[in-house]
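Protein: ABC-2 type transport system permease protein
Species: Desulforamulus aeronauticus DSM 10349
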Amino acid sequence: MIKALLVRELTYLWRDRGLRNILLFGPLLGILIFYVTYSAQILTVIPTAVVDLDRSSASRDLVTKISQAEYLQIVAQPASAPEAEELIRRGDVLVTVVIPEDFGRHLTLGRQTSVYIGIDGSNMIYSTNATTAALTVAKTVSAEAGVKALMARGLPREQAKSAYQRVTLQEEPWFNPTLNYAYFLVLALILNIWQQCCTLAAATNIISETGRPSWTQFKLAGLSKWTLFVSKSVVHIGVFMLLILPIYGICFGLLKLPLHGSWLLLLLFTLVFAIALHSVGTLASSFARNPVDSTRFGMIIALPSFILSGYGWPLEAMPSFVQSVVKLLPQTWFFQGLNYFTFKDPGWLFARHYFVALGLIAVVCYSGAAVITSRK
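Structure follows.
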């Protein structure tokens, strides 16, 4: 009986052409789209306009340093600040630097001077990198000016450097040393598509039976609802895991995305998440009046869950009540844990509370679905 039910559900999934194509090709299409999108991996060219109102050797030296900055590329040198402002308004440049008159003279006399830097904040990634590059240039120029001021007072160059730079800050990004966007985003975005596709399938678990004329025949025949839906769930979860294997194989093997944790632990973690995810879809399917409503309920949960998971925007920065609510979703625990598994190798002792949370979600949702279905 159980074998027949397993084969029956697998046949239904395969014959549903729309769902089959979504499950098979949705995640694979996501791999292609997101890897191509983030193939540059890091932003290295930020168009910059420089207005040099001083025209001194010091200002020309500053322009050279800006052109040599890691992310900035000078594409225009307008004659005035209003012209530069117009360039940034039109989107021709993302950064404007205005070097004031008497910049070089103030530096020579050891006086404080300022350089205006305008950054287009409408794109946060560009603005963050531009700010970092601009601050690096500013620190370099400030340090050189400080050393020259001490040398003007009679100190030898090496002593001036030592006196001015008593504290040296050494920055070392851990886990993602090159700050590679592809490493951080590609796998998570692909898995987001995968979990949405899986939610669609899970949302058919109960309504696909109770919404058919055959449901009456099942009840009249005295067949166990428990056996029926457990068999269907096993097939669904098995399909979910079969789909994840090529995704992980391509991402970690072909695309060389980082995986510092254990393969076995990651697969086990994904399996527990797949069970919890399926339980949420099953619960939505249990109280839906028809397949369309069930799909809507599933998508209402699946679509915003990645944004709310804290992967892109930290949970700690969200309102406390939102933090409490999103912890009820399996996606939150999965994407939070994914970051640790891929970048940090946390080990079982650290990761076990993620497993426990996902397990509790599965128990609660399956129990709720069982209670609702028992009344049908």
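Remarks: The CA atoms of residues 284 and 297 lie 6 Å apart.
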